[in-house]
Amino acid sequence: MVGIVALPSRDRVARRTFVYELRVLEEGAAVIGWASSSFFGFAAGHIGVGDDDKSLGFSIRRRAIMHNGEIVRPVPSVEVRKGDIIRCAFDTSSGTAYF
Questions:
Q1: Can you give the pLDDT at residue 1?
Q2: What pTM did the predictor assign?
Q3: Which domains does the chain have, with CATH numbers?
Q4: Torsion sign over Cα 48, 25, 84, 21
């Protein structure tokens, strides 16, 4: 597990845990994570998951969990390689994200 981050939630929803996994197909820069329904990414403006207060992302290149454009938890010991599987989970009752 890369890290656990709890964020205060303004919009509590029914108690649920959401999970998805992905396989890394190429090495390079990528950010994966979670966003609220009010998140709006803008690729041309370099605004993605973890760059605002409505999303949380794990940056493979930075080796860190990002929120609001800042590192909230560095994970320098993690090295992601081609073929690795990354699991992302979010517990809505506690506002906790797991990577």
A1: 47
A2: 0.77
A3: 4-98 (2.60.120.920)
A4: positive
